[in-house]
């Protein structure tokens, strides 16, 4: 690649996702020069020294990293609560930004960040929803575009994690925004991706008519105090008449399952219907068995190669990106409305400006949503 321009990029956050990102940046991104990594937690420098190439400079302070590493772009893979301030800091320093979902757990902050990114059109801003970068979802998208499924009128998804005896997500719930906001954003995004939600609108600002959600705490009763569920069901009626349903869960015993059914008038297509880890079948006294994909992290490799390739291509070649700021904002509005609907047991309608109509709700002593 000598002589080819490469994008100088710094990675913020070396946690579960950041470690995968660091490996991909090191070995699988020929158009990116991985110049720096940053993490504020104690011990992160030692981890970086042991696991990253010597050429990657470690910083414990994000502002120092963004100002002094020579990076032109940042990939923000930190905890959700830090996304909005880090995005704004990077944009103020004239850096291109790619940030893991979600921008924030509240709609107003998301709106402010999206507006800030829009005010810097010379900078690329990408929140990559991973399913849009997965080859199976892309194959079905082509089938939809070619009309092979007929008129696509509904999408049904499920996303169910393996039960985690440590109950990590129970304490995580206080910051995650809840199961609809944290987990469901992928399902909402993929529904929007297939349902052509901007087409056939009488009011272009309003993409959604109403949402309704229900949920349970079947294993983790402590979630009640965070206004959260370990199983949740959401329905979204888009303004063009298309319907999305989703079942989100944290209590599966065999592994991780995330099937998506795209319903068309000529055909249905199913992605990930049987979440097998490989093609091996065991035939024994229990019957015919396959191993299940243990968690979502196993599926990220291809998506994470594709989204980083797209981000660097967008900056270096001005090529188009698969997700826009509007996609991040629209998905954020819907998941926040679903979480609100679950908490209040009420349907949420969207107004003519496309905003969900919600009052502030008290959850664990603090207001969680605003209209
Ligand atoms: N498919 C997906 O798109 C997907 C999947 C999983 C997680 N996520 C998102 O990715 C993000 C990271 O998830 P994770 O599971 O890796 O979390 P994590 O808690 O394992 O890691 C976050 C890391 O960021 C570091 N950090 C926190 N604040 C920082 C700051 N200001 N500057 C630098 N470093 C900081 C922490 O010390 C930690 O090491 C979350 O927002 C999550 O919602 C996206």
Automatic annotation (TrEMBL):
It holds the Pfam family GFO_IDH_MocA. One of its GO terms (cellular component) is cytoplasm. Residues 137-267 form the GFO/IDH/MocA-like oxidoreductase domain. It comes from the Eukaryota. GO terms for molecular function: nucleotide binding; oxidoreductase activity. Residues 8-121 form the Gfo/Idh/MocA-like oxidoreductase N-terminal domain. GO terms for biological process: NADPH regeneration. PANTHER family: BINDING ROSSMANN FOLD OXIDOREDUCTASE, PUTATIVE-RELATED, NAD(P)-BINDING ROSSMANN-FOLD SUPERFAMILY PROTEIN-RELATED. Belongs to the Gfo/Idh/MocA family. This is NAD binding Rossmann fold oxidoreductase. It comes from Knufia peltigerae. The lineage of its organism: Eukaryota, Fungi, Dikarya, Ascomycota, Pezizomycotina.
């Amino acid at each position: 690649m000598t002589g080819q321009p490469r994008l100088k990029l710094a990675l913020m956050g070396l946690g579960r996702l950041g470690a995968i990102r660091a490996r991909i940046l090191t070995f699988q991104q020929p158009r990116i020069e991985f110049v720096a990594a940053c993490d504020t937690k104690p011990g992160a420098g030692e981890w970086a020294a042991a696991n990253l190439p010597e050429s990657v400079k470690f910083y414990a302070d994000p502002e120092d990293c963004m100002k002094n590493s020579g990076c032109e772009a940042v990939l923000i893979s930190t905890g959700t609560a830090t996304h909005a301030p880090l995005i704004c800091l990077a944009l103020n320093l004239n850096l291109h930004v790619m940030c893991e979902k979600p921008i924030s757990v509240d709609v107003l902050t998301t709106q402010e960040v999206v507006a800030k990114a829009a005010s810097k059109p010379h900078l690329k801003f990408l929140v990559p929803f991973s399913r849009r970068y997965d080859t199976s979802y892309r194959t079905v998208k082509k089938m939809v575009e070619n009309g092979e499924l007929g008129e696509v009128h509904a999408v049904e998804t499920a996303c169910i994690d393996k039960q985690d005896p440590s109950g990590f997500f129970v304490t995580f719930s206080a910051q995650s925004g809840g199961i609809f906001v944290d987990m469901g954003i992928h399902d909402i995004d993929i529904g929007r991706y297939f349902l052509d939600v901007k087409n056939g609108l009488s009011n272009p600002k309003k993409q959604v008519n109403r949402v309704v959600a229900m949920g349970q705490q079947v294993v983790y009763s402590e979630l009640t105090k965070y206004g959260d569920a370990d199983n949740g069901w959401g329905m979204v009626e888009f303004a063009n008449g298309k319907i999305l349903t989703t079942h989100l869960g944290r209590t599966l015993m065999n592994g991780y399952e995330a099937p998506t059914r795209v319903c068309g008038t000529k055909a249905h297509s199913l992605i990930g219907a049987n979440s097998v880890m490989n093609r091996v079948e065991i035939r024994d006294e229990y019957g015919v068995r396959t191993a299940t994909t243990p968690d979502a992290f196993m599926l990220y490799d291809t998506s994470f190669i594709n989204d980083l390739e797209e981000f660097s291509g967008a900056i270096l070649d001005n090529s188009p990106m698969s997700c826009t700021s509007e996609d991040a904002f629209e998905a954020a509005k819907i998941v926040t409305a679903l979480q609100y609907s679950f908490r209040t047991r009420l349907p949420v309608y969207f107004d003519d400006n496309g905003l969900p109509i919600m009052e502030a709700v008290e959850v664990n002593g603090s207001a969680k949503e605003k209209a």
